[in-house]
Amino acid sequence: MTRCEALARFGQKLVRRRPLEWKEGSGGGLARCLSTLDLVALGVGSTLGAGVYVLAGEVARDQAGPAIVLCFLVAAVTSVLSGLCYAEFGARVPCSGSAYLYSYVTVGQLCAFVTGWNLILSYVIGSASVARAWSATIDSLTGQHMSRALQESVPLRVPLLASSLDFFALGLVLLLTGVLVLGARESALVTKIFTGVNLLVLGFIILSGFITGRLHHWQLTEQDYELIQSESNGTVSLGPLGAGGFVPFGFQGVLRGAATCFYAFVGFDCIATAGEEALDPQRAIPLGTVASLSVCFLAYCGVSAALTLMVPYFQLSPRSPLPDAFLHVGWPWARYLVAAGTLCALSSSLLGAMFPMPRVILAMAEDGLLFRALARIHPRTHTPIVATVVSGILAALMAFLFELNNLVDLMSIGTLLAYSLVAFSVLVLRYQPDQHPSEKEKPGAEMTELQRGPGAGSRGPEPGAGALRGLWSPGSAGPTPRSGRAAYSCALALAMLLAALSLVLAQWPGRLAAGDPLAAAVTGLLLLLALGLTAVLWRQPQSPAALRFKVPLLPALPLASIFVNLYLMLQMPARTWAQFGVWMAMGAAIYFGYGIRSSAEAAPAQTRL
To answer: Which residues cross the membrane (predicted)?
Structure first.
């Protein structure tokens, strides 16, 4: 075998794809026991964490004022772009693995491993961060006695580690790992209880805000600011005023606040990992995803509106806005309800972060990309026992040893990357010919057109004019192999253009605002090319396959989702990208040392899903 042939075979291994079909009864031993309500509770619990009790105060005080309601609206719409893509894929391939599986059937094995590897990172950091927040909340309720005792008895003076060991967070994660081992039904029940209490507390906060609040607090002026400052004699720390009114920091403040609020909606993707445990996954996953995002949006908007009606936005406490707001209106007893809601929100958020992690590990282990011992399922509880225990211990150790504030941005990169790949996968698959199992059984038909990739096929290149006419007028009511390859190529080129456009907007905002000719020309050229390719993609025939849910406004909506996600990723500091590089180097060692040789797709005759 020549060197070129060896390199070509190696490249083919990197883009091996899983077949798309899903057969009723698949699931590898996981129990189908989760209703739509269970999935909604899981999504709401994972998404509506402690941020609702803190984030609204921070953003309203320093970035948006009362217009924080608009920030959450913009952030919710942005999150829905990704949520709808997850919903379609959940209806199309309702199996464990979430974004990992979706990228495997569309983009290929290497991208799938990168996605799954980063999902694991996101869930580990998310679980450990929430456990630390739970511990900090208990510590604050006890007057910081716990943290002071730990710092005195077992101080840590090691770089990158926390100042003290957090035994409380360690025990909490191990306890909930035990709950997850008991079974998906039991985990869902605990999540529903915590989420229900959290929603009741938030409902009380919203109702209290509308009763005790003043509409004048949405119309504050400089005179109000000066009056409050004079009455306090300088004893009250006031935030920035802005221009006053409902939008005191202008449209830029709303956009900055929306970028911060976007991360408040991260977590709904855990619903997609329960595809093999849902009773009716093709209905429950789309409905659960949309319903959970809707509930979270109403809760965030309601709490932020109530908060800014109760207290002038520049008087909000950045660390404990809701307890201080109830003190402001003369309801000090309500602080205890807020504390109870915070603990329930943290508990459901922790379960929501821990639940999908072993499901992603299970899917990767079943595919041979991670060690197959991790794919063991308990015969009685029907849970991924080894993956659950290993992921729980890893998250517990992270919570025990590390101060995770500096790693939250790293978690966001993994999540946004997964969102982008899911949107790309929806964009590609809608334009591909249907894959029929009967065709796969024919000799020589093991690979579908999507599996061969955009460059496959025996036809030679067509003349230029004819090829361009074929792109604009495919001449077929349904997708063909030729139109599928064209759509794949256009989608890939669009993703690259959107990445370049995001980079320009992230690196040259000042030059664009100042009207720099070079920056404006580069931006205009990228936009023009993107619009042209979008038009070509729009002209390609879509698959008529009947699904319980389909993303509307194709291709615009998935492309908008990809652009927003890439732009937010590029806002991360260089230190975060360096940490990301270290994690990816660890993943590369596992993939090239084990996964690429042990992959289930290495056996062509083996049928997956």
So the answer is: 33-55, 67-87, 99-125, 160-182, 189-211, 254-275, 287-313, 333-355, 385-404, 410-431, 486-506, 518-539, 551-570, 576-594
Q: Inform me whether the pLDDT recorded for 96 exceeds 80.
A: no
User: Nearest to residue 192, comparing CAs of 340, 94, 46, 290?
Assistant: 46
Decide if 540 is inside a domain.
no
Average pLDDT, the chain: 84
Instruction: Report the Cα–Cα distance between both ends of the chain, in Å, rounded.
Output: 33
Q: Please, are residues 415 and 116 in contact by the beta-carbon 8 Å criterion?
A: no
Reported as a single tens digit per residue, the pLDDT across 255-269 is 888 888 888 888 888
Does position 173 have pLDDT exceeding 90, yes or no? yes
3-state DSSP helix/strand/coil % of the chain, to nearest 5: 70, 0, 30
Rounded to whole angstroms, the Cα distance separating 245 from 504 reads: 33
Confidence at residue 535, expressed as pLDDT on a 0 to 100 scale: 93
- Closest by CA to 91, choosing from 268, 282, 290, is 282
139 occurs within a structural domain:
yes
Three-state DSSP class for residue 157: coil
CA dist., res. 288 & res. 186, Å (int): 19
Half-sphere exposure of 381 (CA within 13 A, CB side): 18
CA distances 3 to 8, 16, 597, Å, are 9, 20, 19
Tens-digit pLDDT profile for residues 495-553: 999 999 999 988 888 888 888 899 899 999 999 999 999 999 998 998 888 888 889 89
Find out whether 80 and 47 touch, Cβ atoms under 8 Å: no
Residue 311 gets which letter from DSSP? S
The domain that holds 264 is classified in CATH as: 1.20.1740.10
In a domain, 579, yes or no: no
Domain range enclosing 73: 32-428
Q: Report d(CA 425, CA 104) in Å as an integer.
A: 9
69, 305 contact by CB (below 8 A): yes
> Could you tell me the pLDDT band of residue 448, with boundaries at 50, 70 and 90?
very low
Q: What are the structure tokens assigned to 189, written together?
A: 């029940």
Q: How far apart are CA 555 and CA 537, in angstroms?
A: 7
Separation of alpha carbons 295 and 298, rounded Å:
5
In a domain, 524, yes or no: no
Tokens of 173: 């994660």
| Whether 76 contacts 300, CB under 8 Å | yes
- On whether the CB atoms of residues 56 and 303 are closer than 8 A, the answer is yes
Domain count, the chain: 1
Buried b (16+ CB within 10 A) or exposed e, 399-427: bbbbebeebebbbbbbbbbbbbbbbbbbb
Choose among 437, 418, 549: nearest CA to 90. 549
For residues 176-195, give the mean pLDDT.
91
